[in-house]
Amino acid sequence: MLSRQFRKVVARPATAAVLTMGLLAVAPVFSSTVSAQAASVSCTTPDTSAPTGPATVSTASTSFGRVLIVGSGANVGCSLYVLTSDRLHSLTSGLAAFACSNGPNPIGQPCDSVLWPALLTNGHPIAGPGVNRRLLGTVTRTDVVSGASVQQVTYAGLPLYRFFLDETPGQTDGANLFDPVTSPTGTWYLVEPGRGHPAPGQAQMRVETVNGTEVLSASMDTDFSLLPHGYFPVYTSSNENGRACQGYCALIWQPVLTSGRPEAGEGVDQHALGTVVRPDGTHQVTYNGKPLYLFIKDAYIPGIIGTQSINGAGAVTPWGVFNTITLP
Fold it and tell me: 33: how many CB neighbours lie within 10 A of its CB?
């Protein structure tokens, strides 16, 4: 259902209102488990107007661990995400646009109001149970609601969003989505509340045949209806210091993150897999001690943008030469 729905949106771009009606028509009605008053909740609704009160951020237990969710309002219980490439905005002191904006994209719908509706607030956001209130903040956006300047909720400095394919509370279709639609390409992660780190769950690695070559690959797009557990080639740098790829480097060569020990799939030696703690406290997957990365030009959505490929092999960069890992 969701896959057909997504393709229909791409084939025939609609206004936010029309898209909303189509999504609500297929969205089941159920009772919110995080609201004291039972109500029918949809997580698909776009941002069409400025909020009238403060947003509440709460937490819920999922297969990815405890993560942030919307804590109040019409979207109570819906999963919240951050986008790694939104860091470009902070790295440029706000000179760069947000990676998820209302600019043109291959889907033909604004990213920040329809595809990934921004969590908006009128007033400082409220910390629900389990939320670190010191990590809550706001950023001003003028590209979400037409003709209005609004405040988007941030956590640990990154803006929070919903995903339009999460029809109901508890769904996590956007988890670990390696997204070529954003500009620049980034990965969407659920958010753990303690320090505001991504909540990727346990990384899964296997050998994947790409362009006729068997290479070590990482599972991404965990619950995405168009490419569930899609596998993408991973790379190592000739500079083996895991601290070398930070800042701009990590926007292009995105670290393969994990919660706990990575899992070896078909063709991968479990003993070769490990982790290294990055300076920001996240855990990056290693293979034979070498940190692993995804290349942003490998991201794709089947039938919509790009194809499975190896685009970064042999890339010479200021941070080293990047190559895939070929396995027998």
Answer: 12
DSSP state of 114: I
Give the Cα separation of 155 and 55 in Å (integer).
13
Distance CA 176, CA 170 (A): 15
Spatial neighbors of 24 by CB under 8 A, at least 6 apart, are 42, 44, 45
C-alpha triplet 151, 171, 33: angle, nearest 5°: 85
Shared-domain flag, residues 175 and 228 = no
Structure tokens that stand for 154 in this block: 């941030």
Instruction: Answer whether residue 32 is part of any domain.
Output: no
**In a shared domain, residues 85 and 167:** yes
Give the number of domains in the chain. Answer: 2
Q: Nearest CA to 178 among 302, 19, 27?
A: 302
Separation CA 113–CA 304 (nearest Å): 20
pLDDT tens digit sequence for 174-227: 999 999 999 999 999 999 999 999 999 999 999 999 999 999 999 999 999 999
269 CB-near residues (< 8 Å, 6+ apart):
none
Q: What is the pLDDT of residues 214-272, one digit of tens each?
A: 999 999 999 999 999 999 999 999 987 656 799 999 999 999 999 999 999 989 999 99
Q: In this structure, are 173 and 255 located in the same domain? A: no
**pTM higher than 0.70, yes or no?**
yes
Q: What is the DSSP-derived secondary structure letter of residue 230?
A: E
The helices-and-strands tally (H runs, E runs) of the chain is 4, 22
Phi–psi pair at 70, nearest 5 degrees: -70, 130
DSSP 3-state of 2:
helix
Contact 152, 121 (CB under 8 A): yes
Counting Cα atoms < 13 Å in the Cβ hemisphere of 98 gives 24
- The pairing of strands 263-264 and 204-210 is parallel
Cβ atoms 150, 50 nearer than 8 A: yes
**221 and 148 assigned to the same domain:** no
User: What is the gyration radius of the CA atoms in the chain, in angstroms?
Assistant: 19
